[in-house]
Amino acid sequence: MAGLRNLAIGIHHQDGHTHITAALRHPARDCRRPLTAFGLTR
Questions:
Q1: How does residue 42 score in pLDDT terms, banded at 50, 70 and 90?
Q2: Which residues contact 9 (CB under 8 A, 6 or more apart)?
Q3: Apex CA 39: angle with CA 36 and CA 42, to 5°?
């Protein structure tokens, strides 16, 4: 689980987020948001 969290944090850092706590909470509100970070949605 720690590895998955570190992966998510790394992706948010690459996207330019500086407030990681808010960046991790934001995708939890909509299950499609994390997929856009990976480029898996249209």
A1: low
A2: 20, 24
A3: 80
